[in-house]
Amino acid sequence: MTDEPPHPTPQQRPVQQQNAPHERSALQQQKAEEALRAIAAGADPTREAFDLANDFTDAQTHRLKQAIRRLLRR
Fold this sequence. Notes:
mainly alpha
């Protein structure tokens, strides 16, 4: 038996599973700030920007798929 909670906390949930727009926005803001800190510490700016763009695109694609599925179920 583990001590993990039965449901993930908001920090543990991927962007795709977050429901409220303010939660998604806050997470995007947090990721952007982390990327800026990494760049300031010497990380590759191109890689950081690429990772942020991929995360955003993946989340938007997932949301679009969900919306289409909801429409098709009607």
